Amino acid sequence: MLRTILIVVVLAPFLLAAEVPQAEISNGIIQAKLYLPDGKHGYYQGTRFDWSGVIFSLRYQEHEYFGPWFERYDPKTHDAITGPVEEYLTNNMGLGYEEAPIGGPFIRIGVGSVRKPEEKAYRRFNTYEIVDPGEWRIRKGGSWIEFTHELKETSGYAYVYTKKIRLEKNKPVLTLEHTLKNTGRRVIETQQYNHNFFTLDQQPTGPDYVVRFPFEARSKQELKGIAKVGGGLLEYLQEMEKGQSLYTELEGFGTGAKDYDFRIENRRTGAGVRITGDQPLVKLAYWSIRTTLCPEPYIQIKVTPGQTTKWIITYQFYTLPAASKP
């Protein structure tokens, strides 16, 4: 009986995948499957991450790049989510949280306005009560899908946020094209980062992986003998065990967008991906456990009332000879 229960827990995300709103795009080279925003039936109903662009499968050259990495699933858990997902933070809090009264609303971009409860401090991993989910509009073509989230004014903040996920013609390339228009009375100032929950071929995090940087990266935290950073590489010294985690912030990047450029490769299966952005880094975090590894690049965003800002993140997928050496 115990074995049956464990199997159900592990398979739950896959079973649910057929029941929640979803879509698929392809350019003949890449096939990507996405969950769609939905407050009642959506796969992800937490308030930490932007609800748009949740990719639960991306296949290229028979390699799988994304998928469930967690053991237990609950749609309202803050990180029960897959793929290249994004969070917006203002002073490490939701937009407008500091000035919101108890019981009043503040903003989670890509989610809506949520209620501030009586609490000692902002709880980043908490799922807050949604007061106004805003309005979602979705357009789709064969190789692209576009999400638009419009939030009416909340405490002076309002926006129209658009994310278009596009597969380039005849190329193994996916782009996340963002547009944020400030339709409110107050300046929107926030940091945005992509968590990048990579699960390359479901391989355990360990020495088969290497992460490459275009600069001489330095770790700010102790790596616990699990990994080492040097020579523009992050390499694992051992296979991570269940229950282990690794977190560090990385230094060494410059002020230009050219350092928003990372490569993750699995030398056993030959799967690789290059991630680039068109904005300069303001912070670079890195987190991994046995089932996923995640470079987390932060950028700064400031949009004054009536203005619009745009930025792009690009993923280029490639293969290398399996079992290759660095």
Detailed description of the structure:
It is a single chain. With about 325 residues, the chain is mainly beta. Helices cover about 5% and strands about 45% of the residues. The protein has a ten-stranded antiparallel sheet, with no helix packed on it. Strands 5-13-22-21-18-15 form a six-stranded antiparallel sheet, with no helix packed on it. The longest helix has 16 residues. The radius of gyration is 19 Å and the shape is globular. The chain starts with a helix and ends in a 7-residue tail after the last strand. The N terminus is likely disordered.
The span between the termini is 45 Å
The proportion of residues in beta strands is 35-45%
Give the strand order of the largest sheet, numbering strands 1, 2, ... along the chain. 9-10-11-12-23-20-19-14-17-16
Cα radius of gyration in angstroms: 19 Å
Largest beta sheet, briefly? 10 strands, antiparallel
Q: Helix segment count?
A: 1
Global morphology: globular
User: What is the average of the pLDDT values?
Assistant: 93
SSE string, helices as H and strands as E: HEEEEEEEEEEEEEEEEEEEEEEE
Look at the helices and sheets and give the structural class.
Answer: mainly beta
Low-confidence stretches: 1-15
Provide the helix percentage: under 10%
* Total number of domains: 2
Number of strands: 23
